Structures are given as structure tokens and as C-alpha cells.
């Protein structure tokens, strides 16, 4: 066996310095390495394209067609007709848009700043800070379906906590929190805020930990109080985190589905609680499948999402163009 | 440069101690802050505690005296009822069958992609990374219509799915979880792998190690902390997912526990005590994982989104 060593090909030795100039280039990779790398990128990429990007593009394609969802041969090109229909002749569309906008504004104006505020309060030497963090973050660990059921027990008009208290305080009062179309969206928003606050708090705490303490000390030496230090020094220094939080808030508002679905009784959209995401599932899973409508709605959601996704990608990949 | 200049100065001073005694190091009294934070924390726990309270009371007690009343009896009866009557063990098992392969598959796939884009200088690396990351950010509802139709078209052998289709099968749910979650994990892992010095790969190449050995024997073991964080986070996310099984599994008995909860709600909508018990039991695995692996969970969340 050891006698085999002299037969090792000496050929590469003089060649090596010539190619050495190109550093870390895939040129040095042998055929086995290339095959391995091809598999390593090829299989996940195929999965991503087939299960995520192909359906996303197909949604765009189907939005220009009319289809009952049964035979592929029944797909007819109708141009912009679906869009025209949902804009003018589909009653739940504008309420859904309005509710999504309310969802976004509410989330951006209340739970998000509140989460930031809590993070700032907790980011200091403080006893029990882990206990507070754990308690406030806890809802984020629960599934949205469980969150929905927990709030169902609070909002239920006959057996719920809220009406129980209301009834004890002023007998005869009876509010149907989830049934009243003027109220139910807000009831759901409270449940969603309960979860969102802890998420923002944890994201922001991580950001605050990265801020150079010297910055705060310098501001304190210059006589800035806590609020001034935060608004004028810390907040601007955390621009990357702020962008992430903005994107998270927008994305969560667009994706909102599960809590509404569960609190709506699990039957699709309910008056007062229509959201784009729910209308999409209404149109594909219900017995009256309007694939075209559903897809046009999906494209509306996709376009708004892409704006947020673009912001996120720009923020994260700007610095890394090698 | 500046560090070498200041280095000789520092030993002269007593090691970074505050100049005037203990006056500065003693934290200020923060009673007000504690009061506020404790109130908020309690308020945040209240819905959960209310669910726990409701779940512990017999239905007869609450229906007679109302829910807002002192308990006359506390028992775990609702838990045993929910467990036995609605087939929860079966749904928990479905959740395990979906969650475990999905998490492992997601980690393997995303480690592979992250290895590719972060350890080699290929031309399309950034574009690939963006494609994966953006894929995870698309709202699930944008994909669902064509995905639903696709699943109805793809046949599977009988040993994989008794519906003979990707629709209505555990495999279909695992596949979409892996494809969809891969983006987030790739993003996190590629950031992590970039911090591993390039010299390690260089040395391995010079020593004649093939790329696959580099991947399995050098890079993967070094990423263990990132894997721990992502595995924790993804297990909870995938276990908690509600939407894919709702849309892609038709028959109730194949759904994981999170989606099957909706059945429980429909079945027992008149008995909130039972629903509370069911919901809380569903939450138990995630709560256990969270309390046991809190650090991993939070670091997974923050390295992903809080980077920069």
C-alpha cells in the first residue's frame, strides 16, 4: 500500500502557482464538488420555486382569468375584468381594504410604540426585568388559534369576562363584542395588539443592547433627560432596527388572518371583520369558487406586500454588495 | 491604533471604578417603574390566567353561578374530558408528524443554501439569497389558490397518502412548510456563516477536503448555536401554524392539533370551560419549549430580524 505513493501524479505541482492568482474562485472545485454544490442549491431552489414562487406567479396569471376551479380547460382569459369587478361590484372589497388600513394604523400607532416604550423601560439594570419580559412576551409563543380562543372566552356575550364585569357594574347591559359590526374589528385588534406588543418589545430590546452605552452617557453628561436621550440619541441611532420594526408591523397587518378567523367563528369573513386575506380564502375554499376574484385579491395583497418586502431587502442587502 | 495609544494610560487609574465611591454604582430607587411594569405584566397575563381559571371550574358550577364568581370546586375534569372526547392525542401525534420532519428539513435545506451563498463567490449569490428571503415574506394567502390546485393535481403513491394526492396528505404540509420557512432560516444562517473566517475553508481546501466534507464536518458543527436557536423558533412556529392545514387538508382527522382546535370550538361552543382546557393543552408544548429554551428562542428571533 505505501508503495503506491510514488505513483501520485506530480503534474499539478508546476501548475498550482499559475492558477493561485484567482483567490477563492470556484475554479479549484473538482467535478464531485461541483455536483455537490449543484445539489445543495438545486434541491432547495426547486422546492422554493415550485411551492412558493410558482404559486405566487400563478396567482397573478389567474387574476386575469375566469375559472370555476374544476377543469384546467375551463380557464378563460378575461383581462382586467376581475379587477374591475372587485373594485366596483364586490361589496366586501372596500370594507376589507378599509379594515386592513385600520389594522395597520392601529398596530403602528399603539402596540408598536408601546412595545418600543417597554423595551426602553426594560433595557437597564432592573430587578425582575426577565420576569416582566417573559410575561409580556408570552402571548407571542401561543398560536394565533389559541389566542383567538382565549379572547373568545373574554368576549363571549353570554359567558365572557367582559360582559360579566359589565353586567355586575350596570345590570342589563349587554354588548356583543364580536357580533356588532361596529365593535368586532376593535375587539380583534386588542387581541392582536396583546401579541404584537411583546414581539416589538423583544426585537427592540435586542437593538437597544447594541447601542454603545457611551452614547447615552455622553447625552446624560450634556444634561439630557431620559426622554430626550431616547428621542434625540438612541432612536436615530437605531435606524436599521426601526426599519425592521416598520416592516414587521406592515407585514403582520397584511398577513392578519388566524385571530380574525377564529374569533369570527371559523366560517370566513364576517360583517365588520372583512380582511383581504379572509376574502381570498372565501373565494377559493367556499362552495362558490371564484378563482379569478380570489387571485385578483391576492395580487392586490401581493403588490402591497412587495413594497414592504422591497424595503426590507434594500435595508438588509444594501451594505453587502461585496 | 487608538487602543495602543490609550493602553498604557489605563493601568494608572484604578480599573474603571467610578471616581466617587459607591454613590454612582448604587442603582436609583425605581419603585414607580416597578409598579408600572408589574401592572402591565399582570395585565398581559390576565387573559391567560382567566382561561386557566375558567378551565379549572366544572361546567355545572359556572352555568349556575356565572363565570365571574368565586369557585365552588376546582378540578382537572375539563382537561380529561377534552383529552378523551375530542381525540386530542391523535391530533397531537399529527402535529408531531408534521413538525419534526418540517423543522429538520427546513434546517437542512437552509443550511445548504446558506453554505452555498455565504462560503463561495458565485455571481448570483445575493440574488438567490433575496429570492429565498422574499419568499418567506409573501403572505401565505397570496400562494394559497394555485397551491391548492397544484396539490389536487400532484399524485402520490398510496403508502404516502391515502388520498393518493398531495392534497390531504401530511407530506404536502411538510413540503410547504419547508419551502416557505427555508427563506427565513437561510437568511439567518447565511449571516451566521459569514462570520466564520474564510481561512477555515481555505485550509480545508488546501488539505484536500472535498466540499461536502467541508460542509458536513466543518461548517455545520460550527453553526450549532444558530441551529439551536432556529430549531426552537421553527418548532414553535410550525407547531402553531394554522393556515396551511386548514386550506390543504380537508378531512379533520389528519389535521394537526392547532387546526383541529377549530373543530373543538365548533363541537363544544356552548362549553367555554372545555374549550379553555383544550386551548391551554394545545399551548402547553409551546410554553414548555419557550420556558426551557427561552434564550435560544429569543436569539433566533433577534438574529433574524434585528440584525444590522
TrEMBL record, chain A:
CDD domains: TM_PBP2
Domain ABC transmembrane type-1, residue spans: 97-314
Principal cellular location given in the protein's record: membrane
Keyword DNA-binding among record annotations: no
Subcellular location per the Swiss-Prot or TrEMBL entry: Cell membrane
Entry keywords, A to Z: Cell membrane, Membrane, Transmembrane, Transmembrane helix, Transport
Single GO biological process annotation from the record: transmembrane transport
Record's bilayer topology term: Multi-pass membrane protein
Transmembrane spans: 35-58, 101-122, 134-154, 185-208, 229-251, 291-314
Gene Ontology CC annotation, any one: plasma membrane
Annotated stretches, region: Disordered: 1-27
A Pfam family annotated for this UniProt entry: BPD_transp_1
PANTHER family, per the entry: ABC TRANSPORTER PERMEASE PROTEIN, INNER MEMBRANE ABC TRANSPORTER PERMEASE PROTEIN YCJO
Protein family (similarity comment): Belongs to the binding-protein-dependent transport system permease family.
Designated name of the protein: Carbohydrate ABC transporter membrane protein 1, CUT1 family
From TrEMBL, chain B:
Positions of the ABC transmembrane type-1 domain: 92-293
Transmembrane spans: 35-53, 91-117, 124-144, 164-189, 218-239, 274-293
Coiled-coil stretches noted in the UniProt entry, renumbered to this chain: none
Topological category with respect to the lipid bilayer: Multi-pass membrane protein
InterPro entries in UniProt: MetI-like, MetI-like_sf
This protein's name: Carbohydrate ABC transporter membrane protein 2, CUT1 family
Domain of life: Bacteria
Signal peptide start-end: none
Chain residue ranges for the region called Disordered: 1-27
Broad class of the protein's primary localization: membrane
GO CC, alphabetical: plasma membrane
Keywords from the UniProt entry: Cell membrane, Membrane, Transmembrane, Transmembrane helix, Transport
CDD domains on file: TM_PBP2 (cd06261)
GO biological process: transmembrane transport
Amino acid at each position: 500500500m505505501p508503495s503506491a505513493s510514488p505513483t501520485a501524479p506530480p503534474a499539478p505541482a508546476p501548475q498550482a502557482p499559475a492558477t493561485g492568482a484567482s483567490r477563492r474562485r470556484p475554479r479549484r472545485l473538482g467535478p464531485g464538488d461541483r455536483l455537490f454544490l449543484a445539489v445543495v442549491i438545486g434541491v432547495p431552489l426547486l422546492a422554493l420555486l415550485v411551492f412558493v414562487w410558482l404559486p405566487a406567479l400563478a396567482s397573478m396569471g389567474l387574476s386575469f382569468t375566469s375559472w370555476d376551479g374544476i377543469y384546467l380547460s375551463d380557464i378563460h382569459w378575461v383581462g382586467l375584468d376581475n379587477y374591475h369587478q372587485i373594485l366596483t361590484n364586490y361589496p366586501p372589497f372596500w370594507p376589507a381594504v378599509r379594515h386592513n388600513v385600520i389594522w395597520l394604523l392601529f398596530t403602528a400607532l399603539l402596540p408598536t410604540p408601546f412595545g418600543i416604550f417597554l423595551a426602553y423601560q426594560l433595557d437597564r439594570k432592573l430587578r425582575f426585568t426577565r420576569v416582566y419580559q417573559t410575561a409580556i412576551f408570552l402571548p407571542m409563543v401561543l398560536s394565533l388559534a389559541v389566542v383567538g380562543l382565549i379572547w373568545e372566552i373574554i368576549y363571549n356575550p353570554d359567558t365572557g369576562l367582559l360582559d360579566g364585569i359589565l353586567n355586575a357594574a350596570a345590570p342589563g347591559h349587554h354588548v356583543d363584542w364580536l357580533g356588532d359590526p361596529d365593535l368586532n374589528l376593535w375587539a380583534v385588534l386588542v387581541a392582536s395588539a396583546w401579541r404584537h406588543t411583546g414581539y416589538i418589545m423583544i426585537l427592540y430590546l435586542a437593538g437597544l443592547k447594541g447601542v454603545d452605552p457611551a452614547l447615552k452617557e455622553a447625552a446624560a453628561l450634556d444634561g439630557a433627560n431620559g426622554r430626550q436621550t431616547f428621542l434625540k440619541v438612541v432612536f436615530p441611532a437605531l435606524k436599521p432596527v426601526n426599519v425592521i420594526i416598520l416592516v414587521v408591523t406592515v407585514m403582520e397587518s397584511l398577513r392578519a388572518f388566524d385571530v380574525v378567523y377564529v374569533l369570527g367563528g371559523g366560517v370566513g369573513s364576517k360583517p365588520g371583520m372583512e380582511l383581504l386575506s379572509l376574502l381570498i380564502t372565501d373565494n377559493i375554499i367556499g362552495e362558490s369558487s371564484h378563482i379569478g376574484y380570489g387571485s385578483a385579491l391576492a395580487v392586490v395583497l401581493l403588490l402591497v406586500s412587495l413594497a414592504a418586502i422591497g424595503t426590507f431587502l434594500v435595508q438588509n442587502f444594501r451594505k453587502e454588495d461585496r | 491604533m487608538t487602543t495602543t495609544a490609550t493602553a498604557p494610560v489605563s493601568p494608572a487609574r484604578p480599573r474603571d471604578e467610578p471616581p466617587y465611591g459607591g454613590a454612582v454604582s448604587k442603582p436609583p430607587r425605581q419603585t414607580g417603574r416597578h409598579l408600572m411594569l408589574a401592572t402591565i405584566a399582570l395585565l398581559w397575563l390576565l387573559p391567560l390566567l382567566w382561561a386557566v381559571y375558567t378551565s379549572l371550574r366544572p361546567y355545572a358550577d359556572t352555568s349556575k353561578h356565572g363565570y365571574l364568581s368565586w369557585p365552588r370546586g376546582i378540578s382537572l375534569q375539563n382537561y380529561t374530558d377534552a383529552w378523551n372526547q375530542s381525540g386530542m392525542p391523535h391530533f397531537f401525534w399529527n402535529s408531531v408528524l408534521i413538525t419534526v420532519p418540517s423543522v429538520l428539513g427546513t434546517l437542512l435545506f437552509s443550511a445548504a443554501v446558506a453554505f452555498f451563498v455565504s462560503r463561495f463567490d458565485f455571481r448570483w449569490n445575493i440574488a438567490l439569497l433575496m429570492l429565498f428571503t422574499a419568499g418567506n415574506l409573501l403572505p401565505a394567502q397570496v400562494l394559497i389558490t394555485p397551491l391548492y390546485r397544484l396539490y389536487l393535481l400532484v399524485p402520490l403513491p398510496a403508502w404516502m397518502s391515502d388520498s393518493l394526492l398531495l392534497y390531504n396528505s401530511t407530506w404536502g404540509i411538510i413540503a410547504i412548510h419547508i419551502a416557505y420557512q427555508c427563506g427565513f432560516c437561510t437568511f439567518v444562517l447565511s449571516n451566521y456563516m459569514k462570520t466564520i473566517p474564510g481561512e477555515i475553508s481555505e485550509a480545508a481546501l488546501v488539505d484536500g477536503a472535498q466540499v461536502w466534507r467541508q460542509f458536513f464536518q466543518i461548517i455545520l458543527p460550527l453553526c450549532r448555536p444558530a441551529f439551536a436557536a432556529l430549531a426552537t423558533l421553527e418548532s414553535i412556529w410550525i407547531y402553531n401554524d394554522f393556515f396551511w392545514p386548514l386550506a390543504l387538508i380537508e378531512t379533520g382527522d389528519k389535521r394537526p392539533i392547532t387546526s383541529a382546535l377549530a373543530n373543538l370550538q365548533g363541537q363544544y361552543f356552548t362549553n367555554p370551560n372545555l374549550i379553555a382546557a383544550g386551548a391551554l393543552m394545545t399551548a402547553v408544548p409551546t410554553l414548555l419549549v419557550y420556558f426551557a429554551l427561552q434564550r435560544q428562542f429569543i436569539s433566533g428571533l433577534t438574529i433574524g430580524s434585528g440584525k444590522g
